[in-house]
Write a structure and sequence with these properties.
Aspartate Aminotransferase, domain 1, 3-stranded antiparallel beta sheet, 9 helices, 14 strands, 17% strand, binds pyridoxal-5'-phosphate
Length: 363
């Protein structure tokens, strides 16, 4: 079946193979006589699905043994509260604000601990990343929060900062919601990483948390039990009912990623896709992306038409060409093409062809 190419920022396009598999197994999973969404989370069928998903994710992301992998609910925004509820025991945390998401994170954390803005790219219009050597870190802060890919602003860290090299023993907290599994992740720099599943891992409703064991067990007294990382870890993510169907679909995505050659293969593809699209934008007279080339996101490519009066015509034409959900986030306007793992290079090529064609028609 030929479906349109879907550039949604999230919930986002899924690998078609995964949707086909899920459809085939919808009424009867592996001869169990049940749909996965009808299974007890404590039954042997679902436990097998859960354990395979855990193993596959650990293998794909090369998660070291001293980290726990938690499948939670609440999404990325809930983690903005759940993180300080669990790991702000010194009473303070540092934030590097590089776009809309890290801005929201620091705002929410203020309810639970004292917040210091260690660096910001606000003055240059969210188009660059402040050099870690310039960050104003607070002595004794429990953690330093970054958003490693700003989904709305299209700014991405190409390497993670090493806090120890900056003289800090705080834990690095990474909101990697919109680029997890698109490239390898250097765990030696990380204390905790979290991601809502709906960009690159599966359906909305599942939140991935990968947390270093020494950070567990220090939650604030008011932390809800269902959101206490230690409680969740001690119960294999089944303290309460986990989002079972979303875990199952994410598990199918992990298997798909392994068949594609794993994360290094995805990274190479993602590099090629992003280069194709940025080149088309940079070489045009009509489209513009203002982010500094060394921190442009490979996953989320925001761009503007120099004549904003053409926006509606551009989007209507795109839909007619089978290119969906290209409208930019309401807070910044313009356009945004999200090209996560599930977007094939053919989809990016189709978009690039359309960009050329639309520009030629107007000149
Ligand atoms: C999408 C996104 C979130 C999302 O949060 P939800 O609570 O799942 O809506 C958080 N952080 C980033 C960087 C995102 O892209």
């Amino acid at each position: 079946m030929n479906r349109p190419y879907n550039f949604s920022a999230g919930p986002a396009a899924m690998p078609q193979e995964v949707l086909t598999e899920a459809a085939a197994e919808m009424l009867d999973w592996h001869g169990s006589g049940m749909s996965v969404m009808e299974m007890s989370h404590r039954g042997k069928e679902f436990i097998a699905i859960y354990e395979q998903a855990q193993l596959d994710l650990r293998e794909l992301l090369a998660v070291p043994d001293n980290f726990k992998v938690l499948f939670m609910q609440g999404g990325g925004l809930a983690e903005n509260a759940i993180v300080p509820l669990n790991i702000s025991r010194s009473g303070s945390a540092d934030f590097v604000v590089t776009g809309s998401w890290s801005q929201k994170s620091q705002q929410e954390a203020r309810k639970y601990c004292s917040v210091n803005i260690a660096a910001s790219n606000e003055l240059d219009g969210r188009t660059s990343l402040p050099d870690p050597a310039s960050w104003q870190l607070t002595r004794g802060a429990s953690y330093v929060h970054i958003c490693s890919n700003e989904t709305i602003d299209g700014v991405e860290y190409q390497t993670l900062p090493d806090l120890r090299a900056l003289g800090s023993d705080a834990a690095l907290v990474v909101d990697c919601s919109s680029h997890v599994a698109s490239r390898p992740l250097d765990w030696s720099c990380v204390g905790l990483a979290f991601a809502g599943a709906q960009k690159n891992l599966g359906p909305a409703g599942l939140t991935l948390v990968v947390v270093r064991e020494d950070l567990l067990g220090h939650a604030l007294a008011v932390c809800p039990s269902a959101f206490n990382y230690k409680t969740v870890a001690d119960n294999q993510s089944m303290f309460n009912t986990p989002p079972t169907y979303a875990i199952y679909i994410a598990g199918l995505v992990f298997q798909w990623l392994k068949r594609q050659g794993g994360i290094p293969a995805m990274e190479a593809r993602n590099q090629a896709k992003a280069a194709l699209l940025y080149d088309a934008i940079d070489n045009s007279q009509l489209y513009v992306n203002k982010v500094a080339p060394d921190c442009r996101s490979r996953m989320n490519v925001p761009f503007f038409l120099r004549d904003e009066g053409l926006n509606d015509a551009f989007l209507t034409g795109a839909r007619d060409h089978g290119l969906l959900q290209l409208k930019g986030h309401k807070s910044v306007g313009g356009m945004r093409a999200s090209i996560y793992n599930a977007m094939p290079i053919e989809g990016v090529q189709a978009l690039v062809n359309y960009l050329h064609e639309f520009e030629k028609r107007r000149s």
